[in-house]
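Pasting as-is:
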Amino acid sequence: MIESLVQGVLAGQPRAVARAITLVENGGPDAAQLVARLRPAAGKGQLIGFTGSPGAGKSSLICKLARELRSRGRSVGVLAVDPSSPFSGGAVLGDRVRMQELACDPEVFVRSMASRGRSGGLAEAVEDAAVVLRAAGKEIVMVETVGVGQGELDIASLAHTVVVVLTPGMGDEIQSLKAGLLEVADIYVVNKADLVGADAVARSLQAEAERPVGGWWRPVIQTSSVDGRGIAELAEALEAHAAHLRGRTKADEQEIRLTYKTILTLAGREIVEELESTVQPDRLERLALDVVTGNLEPRQAARAAVRMFLRERRRDPSSRKEEEVEVVA
């Protein structure tokens, strides 16, 4: 099954891509095996993160940008992360509705994903889903996050290019963001530029934009999904940033951050799987009961579960064997 799915993704078959993303959303050993097989083929696509306040018009902007990129002959993938219900884990997945006009283009693949409560709005499987799309031949993969805030700094670890989308009327909010998200942006976009106040927001960003990062001068672009203003300019800025990254002679800092994030994500999954297989389920259920009855806070229960896991590992002689990993230069 995995091999046929891998071949379908590498051939760019939409049905195989959809099935592969569903698999990585569900997780498990098969998902890990699939991503491991696809990752070597996923090195060429540019991964772009779009973040900004809810209501900033990110979905409409991405839709217009996708059409512009298609006019330039680029294949496009879109991962739109929607907020999940804290009770059911489900999501409205409204971005799929707003991007209906892209559905008829076989060179555009749009997938809405539920955040499932993850901090910063990034779905747990977004990293793996991006690998699937890049391996399927999508030259540009755009990830739209839920909202804006310190948690959205996760996007800087995931994407090669980070686009922060702002709107008119955000003067005070921009000042509060300067210590966080604005510092990791590669491109600033003032969306809804057809509204009054867009010029003022753009001016407030200039001081931040005039400070180059890694030799890159961050542009401030005004866009409008209503009249198409600035969409072509944004596409050109994305191409310029991709060329800037390719032109570096030292190790690509974005790629290192991406790999660092991937290692942490995979390590976390491995630890959880080991914990579940090591600690007796009834002991974990008792912790859950203590949380429900108010005897423990969730964080305290999590720490107790980790201590149980470590004690069990120390009792197991086989877990003490050290594994030597030889790194071949």
